[in-house]
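Listing S7. Sequence submitted for prediction.
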Amino acid sequence: MTSGPFCNNRRMISLGAGRICCLIRALMFGGTLSVFAHNPDTSYMRVRLSGDEVEVRLTYDVFTLQKIANLDVNHDQRVTRDELKQAAPAIEKFLRDHIEIEINTNKVELSECDEPRWPADLGEVIEAKEWHTQNGLIHFTFHKGVLEMPQDITLAFNIFEQLGERHIVLGTFEKNTQTTEVTFTREEPDYLFDTGFIPSLTSRLMKFMKLGMRHIFLGYDHICFLLALIVVSRFVELVKVVSSFTVAHTITLILAATQVVTLPSRLVECGVALTIIYVAAQNLWLKPDMHHEHELG
């Protein structure tokens, strides 16, 4: 087996040529599909981002869709609108199960899909000779509502085992007038698109507040601390303590996320344990004294 610098150089040249081919295909996809011929092992993805919606459009030819669900039910080498309509739920389920999407690092599901878009220039039937051409391309469009422009969005395609190792997905991310072209392959199946959007201060504070509440109620140590407080606190006092506890955790999350304050994890964990022990000790030794004071009052 050949090895050494020459082999490495050949590999780099091969990889470079592969990336150039992918770039050429991406540029072809950036133009109108009516101008360029459709590659048989290619599907298409377009993500449009706005302040209230993320739109994901996935495009496949009939030949590729046949690998997902049987469109030609009667085996007459023709696909009708009704046959596509019957197969649509199975195709949409496949896409939801095999395409992962994250918005601001939070995993979400593709929402309900629009009715599949039939090729505009064809009638009621797609003949077999058109299944592998641009005339046989069918669009599936999903919509996901958002409260504001996402900071980032990640797509990962897990479709190559079913659609073939040579299959590629040519994609575009569109935000306002900005367009970014991406190629997904078996070797590079995912991509993170950074929109460059900076959320408002109120939005960021609300996000950290939610994280603070989640951090408290999903951590057993915090639950132990709050349960210890319940034993010795009146309702009004308890509300004040829990609210202060949540606000304090929100502040610490902000300071930690922005790296204003960084503490060793061992020190933090020991501090949490000590606070639980301290409150437990209050319950054991200070509670009788508190009852005695109430009786004297």
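Caption to Listing S7: primary sequence and predicted structure tokens for the chain studied. The chain has two domains: 6-194, 201-296. Residues 135 and 274 are 69 Å apart (CA to CA).
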